[in-house]
UniProtKB/TrEMBL annotation:
Entry annotated with the keyword Coiled coil: no
GO molecular function annotation: helicase activity
UniProt entry tagged with the keyword Nucleotide-binding: yes
Stretch list, region Disordered: 621-648, 662-682
Compositional bias segments (type: Basic and acidic residues): 666-677
Name by which UniProt lists this protein: Helicase-associated domain-containing protein
Residues passing through the membrane, by range: none
Keywords from the UniProt entry: ATP-binding, Helicase, Hydrolase, Nucleotide-binding
Coiled coil: none
C-alpha cells in the first residue's frame, strides 16, 4: 500500500508542466483547495473520494480498459491486455491507456502500468461481473486450483447440470444461492467439492475470477465497446421556424401563468411546493397537458419570475423581476428562460411521480430537486450540436450513446431523463422538429451570454401583429402574437379557445362584462374591436355588447352595510322572492332600494351567480371599476455568489507554477531530513494521514510523524498510536510517555520499519 502511494507520487513528480495541467483539467477536484506541493497532489489523487469521481466520469470504453488492467494485474503485457479485451486494435487501447494515465488512474513504473491503489476498491469485488480471485475467497487454497489448465480439465469432467449452472453465472452476477435440496443441491455440492464454486456464507456461493475467465474463454467483456456508438439522424427542414413558434408559445404560457397567479396566487404547501389541485387549475387556465404545465411552472420559477412571497400565509406569486422581463425584447425574454432552464437543477418530469415521501412529488416542491438533470441536459445538447445543422437524432441511438458516455448511471433512469430533456427542448424551442435550432447552438456555445442567445432567437420569433380577424360566430383569430396593448385587451375581453400558430378567442357575455367591469364602455369596446379587426365587425357581436351593456349596471350595490337600488322594481321583487338569495336577508327600504348586512363584494358575486348583472358603486354613486389585482412576491435575493476562480487552463497554469516552487522547497527540506534519525517523512494529505494512523492503531505499528508546532517549525517523533478520535491521536513516545497530538498539525507520517 505504502509502496504504491510512493510510486504514484514519483510518477506525478516526474510529469512535465503540460502533463500536470492535463491532470488537473481532467480532475478539477484536485485543485480545490490548492494542494501544498506535488506530493500532496499525488496523495489527493489517490484518495477514494477523488478516484470515485474520476471513475464515475469514465465512458464505457475507458471503463472496460481500466477493468482489464485491474484483472490483468500490475505491469501486465500489452498482449495479455488485448487478449482480455478480445481485440487487436492496439492503437485504440494504447490511446485509452494514455488517457487513464493522464488522469492518474494509472501510474507508470519501470516495469509497466499499475492501477492506483484505490481503483479496485472503487470498482468493487465484482469487476466486469467477475467474482473475487481465488486467493481472496479461499486464502488457504493451493495454487493449482487457480490454474487455468487445471480448471479446464475439471470443467471437461463436469456433468451437464453443473455446466448449465456455471453458464448462468458466467457473465454475472458471480454470486448465487445454494440450493437446499433436490438435483440443484447435488449439482452445487459437486461444484463445491471440485472448487469451481466457493462458499461465502451458509447459503451463498461465489464463482472465482479464474473460473469465470475460463468460462468466458479468456474474454473479460461479453461485448467490447471501446468507441462510442453512432447517432442515427435524419434531415428535417424548417427547424428554426418551428423552434421560433415553440419559443413564442413558451413566452405566452409564462405571461398567462404570471397573469393568472398575479390575480389569484395559489398557496404554498406546508412541506413546500404547489398542490395538485392548484396545478390542475393552472393546467386548465393554460390549456396544456399536466407534464407541459409542470414544465412551464418550473421554468418560470427557475427564471425567478415566480416565487414564494414569504408571508405568514405564503402563496406563489409573480416577482418584481417579472415587470422588467415582460418589458424586454422577445429574444432576450426567451434567452432568460433558456439559460435558466439549462442551469436549473430541478427536473419537471418528476412532478407527479412517487417520491421518497408519502405521496407524489409536487411541482415547485423539494422532491423535484435533482442536480444530475443539469449534466444530462448539457450532454444531450452537446450530442445534438455534434450533428450537422438540420439533423434530428433518433432517440434510441441518442440514448444508447449517452449510456455509453455514462455507464455507471441507471439505464432506466437515464432513458427517462433523456426523453424528458428532448421533450422540454421542443417545448422551449431549443430544438425544432427534433433538430437543434440556431438559438440552441448558441445556447450550447455561449450559455452565459444572453445577448448572443437572444440574437440567435430574435430572428426566428414570429413578429407581433396589431390586428385580429373577427368572425360571425363571435370568435376572433389572432394570426400571431399580439402587440402589448391589443394583447392585454383581448385577454380581458375574450376567452382563449385554442392556441397554436394562430390564437382563437371567443367573445362571451362573461368576457364582455369583465371588460365593462374594468371600466370599458360599450362604445369603446366596439370601437376597439372595429379598429383592430381586418374583417367587418359582425352584427352578432354588436348585439352581444349592447345587450350586456344594457343590463350592466341596472342594479347598483353600495354599502351602509350594503344596499341594492334599482329603477326596475320587478328586479328587486325577483331578488326578494329568490330562495337562493335568502342567506343575504334582503329587506326593502323603499320601492327601489334593498339593504343587506352582507359585504358589497359578496352581494355582487352572489347576484351574478343567480343571473343578475349588478355593478358596485362607491359612496358618492360612481361605479367602482373592477381591476385585476397584481400580486407580487419579493424578488429572490441574488447575491454575487461565491468568488471562485474556474479551474481553467490559466488557473491551472498558475497552480502548477506554485506546485513546482513548493516542490523545490520540499526537496530542500527532504535533503535536510536525510541527516536526521529515522526514515524520511513525506508531506501528505490529512485524509491519508488519518488512514495510516488508524492502520497503525489496528496493527500496533510504530509511526514516524512530522509535527508542526505553534511557531511553524517541524519536529520528528516516533510514536505508537493507541487511538484516534476527535481530531487527535493518543500515543506513547519513544520514552514511553503518553501524549496527545493534533492531527491537523501532523505534516506527514510513515510506518516504522
Amino acid at each position: 500500500m505504502a509502496n504504491s502511494s510512493r510510486s504514484l507520487a514519483d510518477d506525478i513528480r516526474g510529469r512535465s508542466d503540460a502533463e500536470l495541467i492535463d491532470l488537473v483539467l481532467a480532475r478539477p477536484d484536485l485543485a480545490r483547495p490548492a494542494p501544498a506541493d506535488l506530493t500532496s497532489l499525488a496523495a489527493r489523487a489517490g484518495t477514494r473520494a477523488s478516484v470515485q469521481r474520476a471513475v464515475e466520469a469514465l465512458d464505457r470504453g475507458h471503463l472496460q480498459v481500466l477493468e482489464a488492467v485491474v484483472v490483468a494485474g500490475d505491469a501486465a503485457r500489452r498482449g495479455a491486455l488485448l487478449d482480455l479485451l478480445g481485440t487487436k486494435d492496439a492503437v485504440t487501447v494504447e490511446t485509452i491507456l494514455q488517457d487513464l494515465w493522464r488522469s492518474a488512474l494509472l501510474w507508470r513504473g519501470a516495469d509497466g502500468d499499475h492501477v492506483v491503489r484505490t481503483v479496485p476498491e472503487v470498482l468493487g469485488s465484482s469487476v466486469a461481473g467477475l467474482g473475487a480471485p481465488m486467493r481472496e475467497l479461499r486464502p488457504s487454497s493451493p495454487p493449482e486450483q487457480a490454474d487455468a489448465d487445471h480448471i479446464r480439465a475439471t470443467l471437461d469432467e463436469a456433468p451437464d447440470e453443473a455446466r448449465a449452472m456455471l453458464q448462468r453465472m458466467t457473465w454475472g452476477p458471480a454470486f448465487g444461492v445454494l440450493p437446499t435440496s433436490g438435483p440443484g443441491h447435488t449439482t452445487a455440492r459437486w461444484l463445491l467439492e471440485h472448487h469451481l464454486l466457493v462458499p461465502v456464507s451458509v447459503d451463498r456461493v461465489a464463482l472465482p475470477r479464474e473460473v469465470g475467465l475460463v468460462l468466458r474463454e479468456g474474454r473479460l467483456h461479453r461485448s467490447l465497446a471501446l468507441t462510442p456508438p453512432e447517432i442515427t439522424a435524419r434531415h428535417v427542414s424548417l427547424v428554426d421556424a418551428a423552434a421560433g413558434g415553440a419559443a413564442s408559445e413558451s413566452l405566452t404560457h409564462v405571461d398567462e401563468l404570471a397573469a393568472a397567479w398575479g390575480a389569484a396566487p395559489p398557496r404554498v404547501l406546508r412541506a413546500g411546493g404547489l398542490s395538485v389541485r392548484d396545478l390542475r387549475v393552472t393546467q386548465q387556465s393554460l390549456d396544456l397537458d399536466p407534464e407541459h404545465t409542470a414544465f412551464v411552472v418550473e421554468l418560470a420559477y427557475a427564471a425567478g419570475l415566480v416565487a414564494d412571497d414569504g408571508e405568514v400565509e405564503p402563496v406563489w406569486a409573480p416577482t418584481s423581476e417579472l415587470d422588467e422581463w415582460s418589458s424586454s425584447e422577445g429574444g432576450h425574454r426567451w434567452a432568460a428562460l433558456a439559460t435558466a432552464w439549462l442551469a436549473s437543477t430541478r427536473a419537471p418530469h418528476l412532478v407527479g411521480r412517487r417520491s421518497t415521501g408519502t405521496g407524489p412529488a409536487n411541482a415547485l416542491g423539494p422532491d423535484v430537486q435533482w442536480p444530475a438533470i443539469r449534466a444530462i441536459r448539457r450532454e444531450v445538447l452537446r450530442e445534438l450540436s455534434s450533428l450537422e445543422p438540420g439533423s434530428a437524432a433518433d432517440h434510441a441511438s441518442l440514448r444508447e450513446r449517452l449510456a455509453w458516455r455514462r455507464p455507471n448511471r441507471s439505464a432506466a433512469v437515464l432513458d427517462e431523463a433523456v426523453e424528458a430533456v428532448l421533450r422540454e427542448c421542443e417545448w422551449l424551442g431549443v430544438t425544432g422538429r427534433g433538430a437543434l435550432s440556431d438559438a440552441g447552438r448558441a445556447l450550447v456555445a455561449s450559455p452565459g451570454s444572453l445577448d448572443d442567445v437572444a440574437a440567435a432567437m430574435s430572428a426566428h420569433l414570429p413578429s407581433p401583429v396589431d390586428h385580429i380577424l373577427v368572425q360571425a360566430d363571435l370568435t376572433a383569430v389572432a394570426p400571431g402574437p399580439l402587440v402589448g396593448g391589443l394583447g392585454s385587451f383581448m385577454r380581458l375581453a375574450a376567452d382563449v379557445e385554442s392556441r397554436g400558430g394562430a390564437t382563437v378567442y371567443r367573445f362571451t357575455p362573461e368576457s364582455v362584462r369583465r371588460a365593462l367591469d374594468a371600466g370599458w364602455t360599450a362604445a369603446d369596446f366596439v370601437d376597439t374591436v372595429r379598429r383592430s379587426s381586418r374583417t367587418p365587425l359582425p352584427q352578432p357581436l354588436e348585439y352581444l355588447v349592447s345587450d350586456v351593456a344594457r343590463k350592466h349596471g341596472q342594479t347598483r350595490i353600495g354599502g351602509a352595510a350594503a344596499y341594492i337600488r334599482s329603477d326596475d322594481e320587478s328586479v328587486l321583487d325577483t331578488m326578494l322572492a329568490s330562495r337562493d338569495l335568502a342567506p343575504l336577508r334582503l329587506r326593502r327600504l323603499a320601492s327601489t332600494v334593498l339593504v343587506s348586512s352582507a359585504d358589497p363584494r359578496v352581494l355582487v358575486e352572489l347576484l351574478r351567480d343567480n343571473g343578475f348583472a349588478p355593478v358596485h358603486e362607491s359612496q358618492d354613486g360612481t361605479v367602482v371599476h373592477a381591476e385585476t389585482p397584481r400580486r407580487r412576491a419579493g424578488s429572490r435575493r441574488r447575491g454575487p455568489g461565491p468568488m471562485v476562480a474556474p479551474v481553467d487552463r490559466d488557473y491551472t497554469q498558475s497552480l502548477v507554477d506554485g506546485l513546482r516552487a513548493a516542490e523545490a522547497t520540499a526537496d530542500q527540506r527532504r535533503a535536510e531530513d536525510e541527516g536526521r534519525p529515522g526514515p524520511r517523512i513525506q508531506a501528505m494529505d490529512p485524509v491519508v494521514t488519518l488512514s495510516l494512523l488508524r492502520d497503525a492503531v489496528a496493527e500496533r505499528h510504530g509511526v514516524w510523524i512530522g509535527y508542526s508546532d505553534g511557531h511553524g517549525s517541524t519536529s520528528r517523533h516516533l510514536i505508537h498510536p493507541q487511538r484516534v478520535e476527535g481530531g487527535r491521536v493518543r500515543a506513547t513516545d519513544e520514552a514511553g510517555h503518553e501524549k496527545s497530538f493534533s492531527v491537523h498539525r501532523i505534516t506527514g507520517a510513515t510506518l516504522e520499519t
